[in-house]
Each structure stands twice: as C-alpha cells, then as structure tokens.
Amino acid sequence: MQSAYNRAVGEAFAALVVSECADGSFQRAVTSRKLADLPPNDTLIRVRYSSLNYKDALSATGHRGVTRHYPHTPGIDAAGEIVESDSARLKPGDEVIVTGYDLGMNTPGGFGQYVRVPSAWVVKKPDGLTLRESMALGTAGFTAALGAHQLQRHEVTPECGDVLVTGASGGVGSLAVAILSRLGYRVVAATGKAEAHGWLRALGAQEILSRDDLHDTSGKALLKERWGGVVDAVGGAILATAIKATKRGGCVVCCGNVASPELHTTVYPFILRSVTLQGVDSAAADMPLRAQVWQKLAGEWKPPPAVLAAIAREIALGELPPLIDTILQGRLQGRVVVAL
Ligand SMILES: NC(=O)c1ccc[n+]([C@@H]2O[C@H](COP(=O)([O-])OP(=O)(O)OC[C@H]3O[C@@H](n4cnc5c(N)ncnc54)[C@H](OP(=O)(O)O)[C@@H]3O)[C@@H](O)[C@H]2O)c1
After folding, report:
1. Most buried residue, 44, 168, 242, 315, by CB count within 10 Å?
2. 311 CA to middle of ligand 1, Å?
3. Which residue, 290, 251, 255, is CA-closest to 273?
4. Torsions phi, psi for 110 (to 5 deg)
5. Confidence of residue 118 (pLDDT cuts 50, 70, 90)
6. Which atom of ligand 1 is nearest to the CA of 166?
7. Where are the alpha helices (DSSP H) in the chain?
8. Ligand 1: does its nearest atom lie under 6 Å from the Cβ of 99?
9. pLDDT, tens digit, 9 for 90 and up, residues 245-300
10. What's the CA gap between 223 and 242, in Å, rounded?
C-alpha cells in the first residue's frame, strides 16, 4: 500500500522563503515548495501552527550565526500532526511539538506547512495543551519555563523575595511573568514600553519598572539586595545591574541578548553573596527535560486561558514579513502564533 508519505511526496506546500539577493540583501516571500525539497530525515510533519521568535528574525535577515545557507525557511517552532515516521514511537496523526535543535536554523523550519526532522527532536503534545496553545508558548514559553525550573533547582522559592523579569513585554519575558506569577512568585517586570504596564499587570506582574531604572551607572560592585531571583532576556548592562542587586544565595537566569551579548561584572556578587549565574539553552535541552517541562506547561504551570489569549495573537503566514522587522526592533508585544 502506498504510504501517506509517498502519496504526499510530490505535493506542493506554502512556505515563507528567505533568499539572498545579488546585492547581499535578503528578501522574504511566501512561495510554493515541494516535499522533495525537504531534507531526508525520518519524520514528516504537517505543521498546523508555528510562532515568531527573535531567532527567526535573525535567520530571516541573513544572520550567519543562525543560518548559513539561503534560500531558507525559518521557524524554530512547529506543532502539527505526524504524516509518517520511521520511529515506532510516532504514528500518523499523532499531535507533536518540535522546538529548537536545528529546526529553522539550517533545517527548513515551521514557517512552512511541512517539516521533515529527526524523530529524536519530536515531543508528543501533552493532553493539557492544544496545538495552538503549544505554539502560543513555543520556544519563548519553553525557555521561560526552563528559567522557572532553574530557579526551583537553585531553591529560589516565592519566600526568597521578588523575582525580576527583564524584557518583560517580549515573548520570553511575558511568558516568564505569567508562569512565575502562576507559581506564586511576586514578579517585578522591567520593560521599555510605557504602554505595556497595564497589560503586564494583567499577566500577573505585581510591580513594573522602567528598563532605565535597571541600568546602574554608580560603578559599585554590589547594590542593595533586592532580587531573590532573576529571569533575564536582554543581557548587557541590565543583566550586570540585576546580578549586583541579587540577594545572598539568589539565582540569575541568563536567557538572551537583545540589548547586548556583553556582560561586565566583578566576582563580588558570586564570592560575597553566593549568587548563581545560570544559563539556559532551550534549543539543546535534552529530551527527558523537554518532556518534563512540556508536561508542566500543560498542567500546573500553564498560564490561565485568559492570560494566554492576552499574550498571543494569531496571524496567517503572509502576515509574517513585517512582524519580523517589528521583533528585531524590540517593538513586538507578547507572542505571534502563525496558522498554517
Ligand atoms: N537561551 C535560550 O534558549 C533562548 C530561547 C529563546 C529566546 N532567547 C533569547 O531571548 C531573547 C528574547 O527573545 P524573545 O523571542 O522573547 O524576543 P522578543 O519577543 O523580541 O523580546 C525581547 C524584549 O526585550 C526588550 N528589549 C528589546 N530591545 C532591548 C534593548 N535594546 N535593551 C533592553 N531591552 C530590550 C523588549 O521588551 P521590553 O520593551 O518590555 O523591555 C523586547 O520585547 C533573545 O535574545 C533571544 O535570542 C534565548
């Protein structure tokens, strides 16, 4: 009998394709691709939803640290149904999630209606989430949840004091606010968007700071102890300031670098206050941790439906190109789910 895969192999499908122009610039357009264009991995997925992350915007604008070869379809997130897989673990019709690994970097990603990936990248969607909700969370939510996981691992409990979330109106930040407040932490959200204050309170933030308040220029090695924990999406001076103001035994989770990849600090927060600086690499999280964190995101860590609805809006593939510029400029609020 002809398999679903073989029936589908000649099919054309829609994808956002980024191409390099002769002058070195990059252009994006929704075009038709063939299943035969996808790499020869063992699992074919019909993508129903993807989402927009900062890394996708880097891939879509020719950032060689993310994507080496063009034309290319970005999209580090994909949720959909198995069409065919060589893995005994995955049956046609199973609803699955793929985030990170090489998806959307040098493997054609979730901004296309089909992806073909190694089965080792595939997480079965937990029952407590719809495919759409899984992409409202996506890599941003998974990363925020890894941040919460690291705070718990380092025994930062709600009793340890306020938790600071930076880049709070962005994808990682807004979901960190929602998840940490759901876990009982008193969340202080730092944002550069004055218009986002009310929205951040609705997500669960108890206090809002302006980004500028978190840029210490005193030259001091240590500041008054303020944070039990920190989830930082921006790096640079804001991260350095947060480390200086973290309480004894606290943990600072470093997730991103939208402000700067640089970090200028002294050793004093570490040797005088036992502060931990903990990195998160969501793309390479191992499968047992992935499955555990997605299970939590489908259960006791899942933001309430009204909060997820406030964070994520849905668009069609053709509406993506301008939003790629918006996220690169730091102007995107919340999450964008792409329906395919
Ligand atoms: N480690 C990992 O595994 C992992 C996973 C996912 C993402 N990331 C990284 O995390 C970062 C955030 O990703 P995202 O998808 O959440 O992006 P995003 O939606 O664009 O959010 C970033 C937010 O940071 C703030 N921001 C922007 N420019 C800034 C600047 N110059 N200085 C200070 N704050 C600025 C803005 O929030 P406000 O206006 O509210 O301040 C912006 O909304 C990126 O660097 C991304 O690569 C890492």
Report:
1. 168
2. 15
3. 251
4. -70, -5
5. very high
6. 41
7. 4-8, 54-60, 131-153, 171-182, 197-203, 236-244, 268-273, 287-297, 305-311, 320-328
8. no
9. 999 999 999 999 999 999 999 999 999 999 999 999 999 999 999 999 999 999 99
10. 9
* Strand segments (E) across 180-290: 187-191, 207-210, 227-232, 246-254, 276-279
Helix (H, G, I), strand (E, B) or coil at 167: coil
Ligand 1 pocket check for 320: Cβ under 6 Å: no
d(CA 296, CA 49): 20
The sign of the CA dihedral 168, 169, 170, 175 is positive
Rounded CA separation 278/291 (Å) = 21
Q: Does 282 contact ligand 1 (Cβ within 6 A)?
A: yes
Which structure tokens are listed for 17?
């394709």
pLDDT the model gives residue 9: 58
Atom of ligand 1 nearest to the CA of 279: 1
Please tell me the distance from the alpha carbon of residue 280 to that of residue 256, in angstroms, as a whole number: 9
- Taking each continuous run of H as one helix and of E as one strand, the counts in the chain are 10, 15
Residue 190 CA to ligand 1 centre (angstroms): 12
- Residue 169 CA: nearest ligand 1 atom is 40
Any atom of ligand 1 within 6 Å of the Cβ of 234: yes
Alpha-carbon span 170 to 333, nearest angstrom: 5
Distance (Å) from CA 83 to ligand 1 centroid: 34
Whole-number Å distance between alpha carbons of 193 and 210? 8
The residue whose C-alpha atom lies closest to atom 19 belonging to ligand 1 is 170
pLDDT mean across residues, the chain: 95
Tell me the whole-structure pTM to 2 decimals. Answer: 0.95
Neighbours of 298 (CB within 10 A): 18
Reference 135, options 146, 123, 147; nearest CA is 123
Helices 131-153 and 171-182, interaxial angle, to 10°?
70
Quote the distance between the C-alpha of residue 298 and its chain's center. 16
